[in-house]
Amino acid sequence: MIADPFPVDPSGQKLCQIFSHRWLAIQGSTEDATNPDWETIGTERNSQHGKFPVRSRSLWAMFQDPAELVGVRFGNTTQYGVIDVDATSTYHTSEGLAAITEALETIGITRTIPIRSSFNGGIHIYIPLPEAVPTFDFAATLKYALEAQELHLNPGQLEIFPNCKSYGRSWLGEFTQYNAHRLPLQPGSGSVMLNHDYQPIGATLQRFFWSWDYAEAAQDMDALTEALTHGRDHLRKRSKLKSHPAAQWRADLELEIMEGWTGSGQTNSLLKAIACYGRVFEEIEGDELAEYVERIAITRPGYLEHCNHQSEIDSKARAWARAAERYYWPISSASKPQRQVATYDINTERAEDAQARIKRAVINLATLGELPDGIRARVQKLCEHARTSAETLYKYLTLWHPYQWCVTPHTEGDTATSPPPPDHPPNTGKPLSDGLLHTPQEVMKGTPPESALKKAFYPGKGGGAGGGKGFPQAEGGA
């Protein structure tokens, strides 16, 4: 590889060290300050880097020429960044510039160098770093640090260098480059250094390099390194979301939550919508998400009139919050999706909830001495107090049936008491008379005829747990 010797001038050496990536550099003229008429140096069609980079001594010579302007791009790593605030930008105010520096502080950038870029009055805010970082990660981190503070990137208003470039299809010979920016303090360009009140303080390279070294040493690289770990994933995730109708999904959830209950049997559907919205768009989790689901639910229209689960709304809110955390993640989160089990079914949660309600109803009725002895009467009573159906009761005979009743002690220490014995012994029937006994085969096997059971069912108020089966990821959701 041919050596690229630095200029003899120490200032030229330092300049070439800082702006070291010189493939596809740009050059323009100072004849018209409002339109430098930029063109790329060393281009070759269908080439990734062009024919050649600008050599160090050539760059220094172009920099010193008051009739010429020069600019550079970025490679795979960089040790600096630039934020461009156009002279006509809405952010070209003391408040807007202060908001930009405050946004940078959130990712560990505590010192910057403001430069008036040209006679036009635009401002370049340089961000020196003490060590090289991945260029694409740094671009993504800058983008989201600004946008998190409502500072939106837009050509001619607010731009960043390096920019978040798209990927070219290298297998087709397509390559994309980072945008180029002009070098600071070039003679004849109108570029000068500014203090932090954005007043001119000179245009010497020596002062610029002193400020550069000071800013490098002041940056919080621990905070920046942590931010960089999220920046790239954040950009990728948001790019994927662009192909999904997330806005429509959000609007649908908001409409469902806003209308609340309009009839019975809607509790699970509404709690699912609230949990999904809180997890994805409010970006909350854990106990905070469960509290959010309950708080929103009890304030929705129709709750008092139509919700048949008011006595257990807290437990149901927790169940749906847990389910939402398994299947959804914040829409702008930089973390990876949290889905762990693709076949998770909310019916498991419903079954546990139904058993808990049956247990409570049996214990409460037995304690009050109101638990009927007869099966039919007991079924009807439990359907009312456990808010379930007879079909659900017959799935869990050991929880309530007088001949199979064995309530399992509660894990928190609550114990179930057996119901009082009946006042009269069970009917043993009359002695069998001579002759054959004709009994259906199902009964001989100890299985009650299905039709007979169905006739004994007394559906509870509102039916079973209600809602749809499972907990699928919403189509087009996050």
Describe the protein in words.
The chain is an alpha+beta fold and about 475 residues long. It has helices at about 10-20, 55-65, 95-105, 135-145, 205-220, 220-240, 245-260, 265-280, 285-295, 305, 315-325, 345-370, 375-385, 390-395, 440-445, 450-455, and strands at about 25-30, 40, 70, 75-85, 115, 125-135, 160, 180, 190-195, 200. Strands 7-4-6-5-9-10 form a six-stranded antiparallel beta sheet. A four-stranded antiparallel beta sheet has the order 2-1-3-8, with helices on one face. The two termini are about 50 Å apart.
Walk me through the topology.
Layout: H1 10-18, E1 26-29, E2 39-40, H2 56-64, E3 68-72, E4 77-85, H3 94-105, E5 113-116, E6 123-134, H4 135-147, E7 158-161, E8 181-182, E9 192-194, E10 200-202, H5 205-218, H6 221-241, H7 246-259, H8 267-280, H9 286-297, H10 303-306, H11 313-327, H12 346-368, H13 375-386, H14 390-393, H15 441-444, H16 450-456
Antiparallel strand pairs: 1-2, 1-3, 3-8, 4-6, 4-7, 5-6, 5-9, 9-10
Helix pairs in contact: 1-2, 4-6, 7-8, 8-9, 8-11, 9-11
Task: From the structure above, extract its key features.
disordered C terminus, 4-stranded antiparallel sheet, 478 residues, 39% helix, alpha+beta
